[in-house]
Design goal:
Length: about 400
């Protein structure tokens, strides 16, 4: 039915390509393009062997609008899934506008030289996408992505008003490496080393990085130390659900991970300020990325699971109500299915589902720039159960809201 162009051939891009190939009744022609074509070719060979589907590959530097435009003109896709890095969001959106192609990504734009991520840059494209009759869906991975679908679903079916939202994200997996990040190390470390931030009573409260933490009991896993971080979906959620009195994001980190990160930070390896090294300008964090294991290399011996969900408190029919909705995902099962670990899997599957809905569900396809919670959550929730990310829910359980 539709041609899709996927840009980015890392851990997430690989899962998106596998999952689109496994749904070739919707994604009838697939092209995977990235800066290093060899990575696309390797994934294409794996897909052919595992699912019997042939996909095309190409090289593109998506920082350069004209290169992406040329590729789009050559392949003529109906939509583009951007799973390169957040730095490429705006150039790829420009290329989509220039060629009349719908757009979806999994992370909001971040300038390379400032560790600052917010939606303002991409929301500014609203009128241009509307006028062009094109759709852009922003942040359609797991978090951002499914966490907003969960919140929208809770709002639609369980509450009259949402008051307290805690997004809780646990990775209880073991990849056997001393230190590695589960998605792009540069983006991951920039996110964690920033001050934390959460929403309370109409304003953002800023806290020193990793300074607020508590054990949270995750289903099927048990208690894990969890840290308050700023996470990008909070920005759109508090805008789209203005009754929220508080919204926070918690993520688990093991002690060894934090010790490594502290050391790397203390010696200046997480800095994004260029330094001179043997006559060349290098960015310490980019160099660090080059020596750390790539996220797509972690899958093979990864054991354990992830658990990501939303704990919500609010009002229904004048009464207090609590609701918890979550997904647990097993690293080894993901590897068996698509040769990936669960962090890449939980990001790539929702990206494929978002694209599938844009292409097949009339209600989901509308011109403009949208965050996922602005769209009908029901078909997305159904497809999560079908495509490998089944969810669970509990109503009126005691939630540890005060922590
Ligand atoms: P990786 O680093 O594994 O992969 C990134 C890919 O993008 C690589 O193939 C890289 O190519 C390619 N790329 C980088 N720059 C360019 C460019 N200028 N032109 C073309 N291709 C380029 O990252 P992940 O797969 O782990 O993450 C992909 C995206 O998913 C990121 O934006 C990340 O923030 C997001 N993410 C979202 C999550 C969510 O839940 N919403 C969770 C996890 C990740 P090369 O190999 O040549 O470097």
């Amino acid at each position: 039915m539709s041609k899709v162009l996927i840009i980015g051939a890392g851990g997430v891009g690989s899962v998106v390509a596998h999952k689109c190939a496994m749904n070739s009744h919707v994604f009838t022609e697939i092209m995977l393009a990235s800066r290093t074509q060899a990575k696309c070719d390797k994934i294409a060979a794996e897909i052919k062997e595992m699912h019997g589907v042939t996909i095309q590959t190409a090289r593109v530097d998506a920082d350069i609008v004209s290169e992406t435009v040329l590729l789009i003109k050559r392949f003529q896709p109906k939509m583009l899934i951007n799973v390169a890095l957040p730095y490429q969001d705006l150039t790829i959106m420009e290329a989509c506008l220039a060629t009349g192609v719908h757009y979806l990504d999994t992370a909001n734009y971040e300038p390379k030289d400032v560790a600052k991520f917010e939606y303002s840059w991409q929301w500014a494209y609203q009128e241009r996408f509307k006028e062009a009759g094109l759709m852009a869906v922003l942040g359609c991975g797991f978090d951002p992505g499914v966490t907003q679908v969960f919140t929208a679903y809770a709002n639609k079916h369980h509450f009259d008003e949402l008051h307290y939202l805690d997004i809780i994200d646990c990775n209880a997996g073991d990849h056997g490496k001393a230190f590695a990040t589960n998605f792009n190390p540069e983006i991951n470390i920039r996110e964690i080393t920033q001050p934390g931030r959460y929403w309370e009573n109409g304003e953002w409260i800023e806290i020193p990085a990793m300074s607020v933490h508590k054990p949270i009991d995750y289903p099927g896993i048990g208690p894990k130390e969890s840290y308050v971080l700023y996470h990008e979906e909070l920005e759109s959620l508090v805008k789209n659900f203005p009754t929220l009195k508080r919204a926070r994001f918690w993520m688990t980190f093991g002690q060894a991970y934090i010790t490594h990160l502290n050391v790397l930070e203390n010696v200046g390896m997480t800095s994004i300020k260029p330094i001179k090294f043997q006559g060349q300008d290098i960015v310490p964090l980019e160099f660090l990325k080059a020596v750390l294991p790539a996220p797509d290399s972690l899958g093979e011996n990864y054991s354990g699971q992830t658990s990501i969900g939303c704990q919500i408190k609010g009002i229904k029919d004048g009464e207090d109500k609590t609701y918890y909705v979550w997904n647990n995902c097993d690293h080894a099962a993901c590897y068996r299915e698509v040769r990936a670990q669960a962090v890449s899997y939980t990001t790539g599957v929702p990206a494929m589902i978002g694209a599938m809905l844009m292409l097949t569900n009339e209600e989901w396809m509308k011109p403009g720039v949208y965050n996922v919670e602005e769209l009908n959550p029901d078909p997305f929730m159904e497809l999560l159960n079908v495509h490998g990310l089944p969810w669970n829910e509990q109503v009126n359980v005691e939630l540890p809201h005060e922590y």
